[in-house]
Amino acid sequence: MTAIRQEAIQMLEKVPEDKLSYVIQIMQGVNGLLGMSETKTGKDLKLEQFVMPATERGQDADNYIREMRDNDRI
Fold first, then answer.
1. What SS3 class is residue 1?
2. Rounded to the nearest 5 degrees, what angle is found at the Cα of 39, between the Cα atoms of 37 and 41?
3. 28, 38 in Cβ contact below 8 A?
4. pTM (two decimals)
5. Nearest to 54, CA basis, from 45, 46, 63
6. Does pLDDT of 41 surpass 60?
């Protein structure tokens, strides 16, 4: 992997989740300007496959964070 590609990946990892859609739109626009087709592979991606199921530990963590926030407001 080239250094510039590594830098790009590091920058993407720093982007907040709620802003990723904007980054994707920009990248799709750049691909369009370069003449790259979005559907080169012909495969439809199902985004659900990337969603991790909730675990009991994760639910406990959410409750813990909520409790810490609630206690912080007192």
1. coil
2. 115
3. yes
4. 0.40
5. 63
6. no
